[in-house]
Specification:
Elements: H1 2-30, H2 33-41, H3 48-58, H4 74-77, H5 80-84, H6 103-138, H7 143-157, H8 160-174, H9 189-220, H10 223-230, H11 235-246, H12 248-256, H13 259-264, H14 267-272, H15 278-287, H16 291-319
């Protein structure tokens, strides 16, 4: 098992290096530090001295890759690539370009609202989708199954923005059951989270239920299922004990890889509900041209995604020991 994990981590490292280098190239070869300075200072009525001062304060006045003014290791360390890209591997995200705020501190504060909204949405949505898919497989071939498939297609065809706007109008403005937006720390946070969680579960029911239903349908006609039925095993027991267990590999594929979303938050949901999470943090950084924050969030998202892929591979070995041989 340990060697298996090491192999997967070895495969993941080149991916992370490639993502980091491509991100650096996009930010510092397409958009130069002078362009960044003009975006923040404004295109009009700025002097060359103001541009130099802005770049010096934020460390953008260094060479890109090689600093020939130094010797030894400082040739590489005193460069934009090392200060803005390599240091990300040590989770040192530096300060923002706009107001020089500590990005590490902002992430540590904003990650909890993102988790508070993402984890309940993920857990409740997973249980609802799997249960609904199991029931549809149990009633397969009936009118209930047909009507449910049509309903899932309808739910998939509706934009998530519609669920957000309709939920805010009905639950907040019309019925006054929940706040329309905002967030509070502590126990009172549930009042602001319940509506986004409900909307997140409902908006994902269509695609989730239909996907799990297709997975269970692939398993329902296999030989081991027919053998269990021939032995007189009840249909519900066949579904929840045999079919669900043997469908865990594709289920885990879709479950574990959403780990980055649990930490990074939902860009649209947090923005519409004014939740101070990492999703809204990224949107605010894009709107204010704060490339330091955007680079940090892209790198953090890639790290979490790779962790999700590694955990997916490890979880495969729990449900299917044959994977260890590959």
């Amino acid at each position: 098992m340990f060697n298996y994990i090491l192999r997967r981590l070895a495969y993941a490292l080149p991916i992370l290096l490639g993502v980091n280098f491509i991100t650096f190239a996009l930010f510092f070869m397409v958009i130069t530090p002078d362009d960044m300075a003009r975006l923040h200072l404004g295109d009009k009525h700025i002097t060359q001295e103001q541009t130099k001062q802005w770049k010096h304060e934020r460390g953008y006045d260094r060479p890109l890759f090689i600093n020939s003014a130094h010797q030894d290791i400082e040739v590489i360390k005193d460069t934009i690539f090392y200060q803005k890209s390599v240091r990300l591997f040590f989770l040192d995200f530096g300060t923002s370009d706009a107001d020089r705020r500590d990005i590490n501190y902002d992430i540590s504060q904003r990650v909890w609202p993102s988790i508070a909204i993402a984890v309940p949405t993920f857990v409740v949505g997973l249980l609802v989708n799997i249960t609904m898919a199991m029931l549809l497989v149990f009633f397969r071939g009936t009118q209930l199954d047909t009507m449910a498939v049509v309903m899932t297609v309808i739910l998939m065809s509706i934009s998530s923005l519609f669920y957000i706007i309709a939920g805010q109008f009905l639950m907040s403005k019309l019925w006054h059951l929940t706040p329309i937006s905002g967030y509070e720390l502590g126990f009172d946070a549930w009042r602001f989270l319940i509506l986004p969680v409900v909307i997140g579960v409902i908006s994902g029911m269509g695609a989730g239920t239909r996907w799990y239903r297709s997975i269970f349908f692939e398993e329902i006609n296999r030989d081991y299922v027919r053998t269990a039925r021939a032995k007189g095993v009840p249909e519900l027991k066949v579904l929840f004990r045999h079919v669900l267990r043997n469908a865990m590999v594709p289920i885990l594929t879709g479950v574990v890889v959403v780990i980055p979303a649990l930490f990074m938050g939902s860009l649209i949901m947090e923005t519409f509900f004014a939740i101070p999470g990492l999703g809204s943090y990224t949107i605010e950084a894009i709107q204010s041209y704060d490339f330091a924050i955007v680079r940090s969030m892209v790198f953090l998202g890639s790290v979490l995604y790779i962790i999700g892929l590694v955990l997916t591979d490890i979880s495969y070995t729990w449900v299917d020991p044959r994977v260890r041989l590959s």
